[in-house]
Design brief:
By secondary structure, this protein is an alpha+beta fold. It is built from twelve helices and 31 strands. α2 (48-55) crosses α7 (203-217). The longest helix is centred in the C-terminal third of the chain and has 26 residues, at 436-461. It is elongated. Residues 31-36 and 546-552 have low confidence and may be disordered.
Length: 552
Amino acid sequence: MIRQPIITVLGHVDHGKTSVLDYIRGTTIAEKEAGRITQHIGATEVPLETIQQICGKLLHKFNLKFTIPGLLFIDTPGHEAFTNLRKRGGSVADLAIVVIDITQGVQPQTKEAIDILKTFKVPFVIAANKVDLIRSWRSHDKVFINNYEKQLPEIKEYFDKRLYSLIGQLSEVGFNSHLYNKVDDYRKTISIVPISAKTGEGMSELLALLTGLSQKFLEDNLRTEITGVAKGSVLEIKEVQGLGTTIDAIIYDGTLKVNDVLVLGGKHEIIKTKIKALLKPNPLTEIRAASHDKWKHLQEVSAATGVKIVAHDFDKAMAGSPLQSARTDSEEELAVNAITAELERSHIETQSTGAILKTDTLGSLEAIAEILKRKQLPILKAEIGDVNRKDVMEAIASNNRDEINTAILAFNVKIDIDAKETAEKDKIVIISKNVIYHLIDDYEELVKSKQQAKHMKTIESLNWPAKFKILPDHTFRISKPAIVGIAMLVGKLKIGGKLMDAQGHEFGELKSIELNGEKVKELKAGLEAAIAISGTNVVVGRQIQCYERNKL
């Protein structure tokens, strides 16, 4: 059968990711027809008939015979949730929506979202949100292309400037893009759909485009063997009162049944456990607020769907891990081999020095590692789990070999007390963040500052050229060492520097500098001080002539 495509939403903070999903949910709920919408664990399923009703005549523009049953939106927006939707080095998500505030354009987290989509090879469309904030914009029609034509000429001109500015910014990050109705080749050009999640403008076009692209380009990927074993991905691990530790999962292939053996990746080894229960919240129930009596117990679920699974040993499970079900010994063996191979495939290339990366999930680990690789920042170790003292000791050893790139990057994990104390004592930097681009930015800034500090240290160790004159009547000792008073003319005089006469002949070495009664390491232009010049043949009156005209 053909399953519904799995669609996730990403974008910069406050650009409207949640609002887009809330509008989709709200619109479908507003239909008030039983069975028109099913809200799963971490997902909202919108049937095709509901999409057809919302989009109306727009769907006919794609001139397609529809076979997909609807769209499944992952309603846990954000990069962290998205990175857990992984399979075979790619993503469970078939499509993504990148939400961009059209009044602000591409922001740091937008670039990060696009980087992550590149990493997991997920096609996407741009939802240019907040068109209602365009100055003097009027909402005459919820279909954008109709509403645009009804705007005043100067408003159209201003909108066009914002649109082409966005197209230019997307070009800078490596993508051709255009307004969705002007795209000739959807494989080569990213579609931009101007929307307002507040007024609903453009939302029907966004749903129509997602449906059309899924139908036209993804149908082969959406074929699933309904009677086959289930394959999916662990979205989150949660403690639920009365149920114990559960996992929220997205199933993208096959059917999962109660009493199936579930095989998935654990923090230390492959987990094999029998499914005790499959749960979903009742229709239209907010999953995070669902009480115990709001859950619906199911005997089986089929792709594509979100589901809460109850079984033993989930406290050892790893968010972002692939999962697979089995009903026979041979299927169990195949599942173990498949999960093991997939986890090995996600092995991250490490080097002898660099950053130690610790994250809460496998998906986040892969995504951050890929971004670091693109930025040519080395990784010493990449693991899931809290930062411990062993990590710090490894960072200390790495720091002796490469102080520039050494740091511990902690994403959404805790830092043990002894690890923190050891790091502070040995001056190992731990960067702890729960937003990926903040983590990467801070690390890049740290590396840059270390590079600058090393550069300055190198500069300070250099012997700078300097020119000075010996002051008349300021000979304090004629030799071994010769001590004279000087006036600095240009450059910088440093201890250890070699001295030359006016003809370029080298003699003696600067042994010490005394300025205002204090020993100093260097002397800058414009200052006067006493200097000691060492050298077996350096004698004032011979090699050093104390006439104001003679300068060394």
